[in-house]
Amino acid sequence: MMKHKWKKRSGEGYIDTCVLILCAMLVIALAVKVLPVYVAKQQLDTFAAELVREAEITGRVGSETTTRAQVLSERLEIDPGIRWSRTGRIQLNEEVTVTLTMDVDIGFGGLGSFPIELTAQASGRSEVYWK
């Protein structure tokens, strides 16, 4: 009687297992494509924070921030578009904001290309008193 019960259900778990493995592989493939976007966003946020910190310390947006942007671009291996709320000297305790934008492409093989624009913004206040 017990032997007959097992024969009746033979092979039933194979289809369930195959579907489960297929779903797991699709989730892993999606994660592999989407995870770099989160890494790029983190790098962009770091870039913006360090760039605005340079402006706070030097008290101006100019050659110092441009040099810092080049160093960060080489170190982080990204080249975002940089837009400042103001340029030149920034008086003590005046606010400055930097906005960075970068396009990241998440394509799914032959399914097409899906460009995403990432934006990072950081604000700070000048620490320099200009006479």
What does it look like?
This protein is an alpha+beta fold and 131 residues long. Helices cover 52% and strands 23% of the residues. It has a three-stranded antiparallel sheet with strand order 2-4-5, with helices on one face. Helix 2 runs antiparallel to helix 3. The longest helix is centred in the N-terminal third of the chain and has 47 residues. The model has no long low-confidence stretch (mean pLDDT 89).
Alpha-carbon Rg, integer: 26 Å
Order of helices and strands: HHEHEEEE
- Which structural class do the helices and strands define? alpha+beta
The main pleated sheet reads as: 3 strands, antiparallel
Strand portion: 15-25%
On the 0 to 100 scale, the average pLDDT is: 89
- Report the principal-axis shape: rod-shaped
Number of strands: 5
Low-confidence stretches: none
Strand order of the largest sheet: 2-4-5
Helix content: 40-55%
Number of H- or I-type helical stretches: 3
Q: State the separation between the terminal residues, measured CA to CA.
A: 99 Å
Set down the secondary structure blueprint.
Blueprint: H1 2-8, H2 12-58, E1 60-61, H3 63-76, E2 81-84, E3 88-89, E4 95-105, E5 115-125
Antiparallel strand pairs: 1-3, 2-4, 4-5
Helix pairs in contact: 2-3
Record keyword descriptors for this entry.
131 residues, alpha+beta, 3-stranded antiparallel β-sheet, 52% helix, rod-shaped
